[in-house]
Write a structure and sequence with these properties.
- There is one protein chain.
- By secondary structure, the protein is of the alpha/beta class.
- It has 12 helices and 11 strands.
- The chain is globular, with a radius of gyration of 20 Å.
Length: about 350
């Protein structure tokens, strides 16, 4: 299915049966690459596709990657484990799917009221972010590469308006990351589920509200068919990162030129990914508005409560995890100077700031 067909129909492909590992041809390195997302999914899935295609083109037969969509080789949330254990040599996911192993991984996906996609790239490349990324993943014999970013997301789809903090209490909501932890402090039953399970859970009433990504992907997954109220922008995900993770032993076995190709392919996939999200989000936003979707912002009372809840969550995590505290110090050191610059140069105003 082409990306445009996916966007048009809102269909999510069902996981295929597990595929046999490819034979290793003489003189050719063949690696399996599972992703946490449906490969057809715009933005997240196509980021994996783009990365694999770049590697295979640049490596000129020396290294070949075979992509496995979510569920084909391993479950969506088991990609990192598969790479760490050697079931696959390389994988594609988002860091906070593995934050249960180390909460500091949230910083390499997104932090509530945190960095935009551009600021994240600055911190990762020049502010020490990539070094911290590698240091934390080295604890599990992994090598991470920053490969994509969703840009600013939506706060979620709701079946009723949220006018007060009390309106959140008791809601069952699919929401990821530290934003989910903050929502719990306000009485929300926050649950995380794989992307393909969001629509059926929302449609059946198992959840009352759902956040996924933003206009392009939310439309593609059909969330607008269940509710017509969408809150934006996301307080919890101002720019969510994607990753490529490599088994460190497999990484070390590569020649420097092949390592450089993997790095370059991740950089190229990141640039393409941001462009894709910016372009198709704008188109999908107009389509959703034309179809009658109401885009709203959380009222000041709710945002203030969320800010307070986020601070509690961040302080708790920093107190319990030295890695989290170390990343938070570096992250906020840059964010504190990035925000005044952004405001002075008239970047789009973000409500969460």
């Amino acid at each position: 299915m082409k990306r445009r067909d996916f966007l048009k129909t809102g269909a999510v492909a069902a996981p295929a049966a597990a595929l046999a590992a490819p034979a290793i041809a003489a003189g050719v390195i063949e690696w399996k690459c599972p992703t946490s997302f449906p490969a057809q999914a715009p933005g997240v899935g196509t980021n994996a596709v783009n990365f694999v295609e770049r590697v295979n083109a640049m490596a000129e037969g020396k290294l070949k990657l075979k992509l496995f969509s979510a569920g084909e080789l391993v479950p969506a949330f088991a990609v990192e484990d598969a790479v760490q254990q050697g079931t696959a040599e390389i994988g594609h996911s988002t860091p906070y799917y593995n934050a249960g192993k180390n909460s500091a991984l949230h910083f390499f996906t997104t932090i509530p009221f945190g960095m935009t996609a551009g600021e994240m790239s600055g911190w990762m490349n020049y502010g020490g972010g990539q070094q911290l990324f590698e240091e934390i993943y080295a604890q599990r014999n992994l090598m991470p590469l920053y490969s994509g970013n969703s840009t600013v997301q939506a706060a979620g789809w709701f079946k009723k308006e949220i006018n007060t903090v009390a309106d959140l209490s008791g809601l069952n909501m699919r929401i990821a990351g530290l934003g989910g932890e903050a929502m719990r402090k306000l009485g929300v039953n926050a649950v995380l589920m794989p992307p393909t399970e969001i629509f059926p859970a929302f449609q059946s009433g198992a959840i009352d509200a759902a956040e996924w990504v933003g206009p392009m992907l939310d439309q593609a997954f059909g969330l607008n068919k269940v509710a017509n109220i969408c809150y934006a922008p996301a307080f919890h995900e101002p720019g969510a990162g994607l990753e490529v993770i490599v088994n460190k032993d497999a990484w070390d076995s590569l020649t420097p030129d092949l390592q450089a190709i993997l790095r370059s392919a991740a950089d190229g996939a990141l640039s393409q990914n941001i462009g894709q999200f910016e372009y198709y989000n704008a188109i999908a936003f107009k389509q959703l508005q034309d179809a009658g979707v109401e885009f709203k912002t959380f009222p000041p009372e709710v945002l203030d409560a969320l800010r307070g809840a986020v601070k509690e969550v961040m302080d708790e995590q920093a107190a319990s995890n030295p890695d989290f505290a170390k990343c938070m110090e570096s992250y906020y050191a840059f964010l504190d100077v990035a925000i005044p610059y952004s405001k002075a140069f008239n970047a789009p105003s973000m409500m969460q700031r």
